[in-house]
Amino acid sequence: MFASVRPAAVAGLFYPASADELKAALDGYLTQASSILARKTDCQNSQDESYPSPKVLIVPHAGYLYSGQVAAYAYALIQPLADTIKKVLLIGPAHRVYLQGGALPLSRYFETPLGQIPIAPDSVEILGCQQCICISELAHQQEHSLEVQLPFLQHFLKEFELLPLLIGESEPKEMALLLEQVWGGNETLIVVSTDLSHFHQYDEALRLDRVTCQKILAGQGTILSEQACGCSSLNALLPLLKRHQLRLTQLSYQNSGDTAGDKNRVVGYASFASFASR
């Protein structure tokens, strides 16, 4: 018998378990992000109503102490879209269960300290019948890469459905075709969860991550697992951005040596946004 609600697995570990503390943390990250973005002419324009809205966000998934501020630079851009976005396609890597292809949950709701989010049944039905997609509650049960994004989404969006997809070892073209089926219009936001290099010395991480960020911005769907743990998601997504004539903008980069760790073994974090044409 499965639980219809997937409870929060990393509340109190990756982010505050108290709803009040969580809201305060999110407010702090997003206030700082909005202030800095407002000083950048191109990002300031992208938030203006006369400019396109973000279609795709690429964000990190470490504990908020480490990467919450980097993620906030992307999430700050969806502030004007609370009434527009009705569905979020959230994709990322599985850290605890080996996957070939993708995995959807059996649960009907995902829960955080900020409440429950309904899973999009129509989209699950579309993807769930594909040969390379399995239904696995186990894969989602303890996975943090998707969960840490949920409070940011709940903080800004009003009522929305979630399509949480974990992607493991897979063929990028095959996954891209599946993502195309649930691409949607302005009502659908796509969020890709990934960190960058892991456990290199600070200066080496800067060098490696600079190369990876350049590949992402160039739309090169050849990201390796040592460059980004969400490489399978990125390699499926990047060709779709080209097909839809979308351009990525890098919003922020830091690593754990900049935020809350030492500089001997760091993890890299970056955030990007891509804007849909009207």
UniProtKB/TrEMBL annotation:
CDD domains for this protein: MEMO_like
Show the Gene3D superfamilies listed in the entry: LigB-like
- UniProt name for this protein: MEMO1 family protein Spea_0897
- Membrane-traversing stretches: none
The organism's superkingdom is given as Bacteria
Could you say which protein family the record assigns here? Belongs to the MEMO1 family.
One Pfam family per UniProt: Memo
Q: What is the lineage of its organism?
A: Bacteria, Pseudomonadati, Pseudomonadota, Gammaproteobacteria, Alteromonadales
